[in-house]
Predict the 3D structure of the following.
Amino acid sequence: PVISVAFSPDGGSLLVNAGDVRSAPTNETPVRLWNAITGTLLRDFRTSKPCGSDSKAQCPVSQVSISPDGLHLAGAVLATGQTWVWDVRTGAVIAELPTVRSTGSAVFSPDGSRIVTGSRLQGVVQIWDTVSYQPLLTMQADDDIRLLVFSPDGSRLLAMCPDDVRMWDTTTVHAPPERARGR
C-alpha cells in the first residue's frame, strides 16, 4: 500500500512512500522516486541500517517530504524512532535525526531551513536545522502526531492529532499550541 506521495518542486518527479507502517520490516525499498511524466523509476531510497534481525530488511517509513529545492528527502521511521534525510541525487543517507520517542511525521519548512518531526506516541514535535541537523526547539503536543503541515509562508505549523488539529506560531520561541476540535 502507498502511505504518502509528494511531487518534486518542479513537478517532474513523484516521491512515493510504499509499505504498511503497521507491518513487519521487509526487503522492499520503502521510498521510491519516479518520473512523473513517463512513470520511470529514478531512484530507490534505502534506510541506512537494517530493521530487525534480517540484515537486508528495510523499516517502513510513515511520512516523506521533499525539500523545496528538490535536493533532499526526509522520512520518518516509526520502528526506529528516527528521521532519515537522503540526498536525492545519490540516494545516500546524509543524516539520521535521533528524534524524541517514536517518529511518525517529517516535513521540510517552505524555505528548506528546517525539518519538523512529530512523534506518533506522546506528541513531541521537534524542529531541526537543515545545515547542522541539530535540534532547534522541542514542543509538547500531549497527543499523537499523525501528520505535520507548514503554512505556505512557514509561520504556522499544523499537526493532525487523532481528535483535533494543533497549530503553532513558528516565529516565536515558546509556542503554545492552539486547538481546533473536529468533533
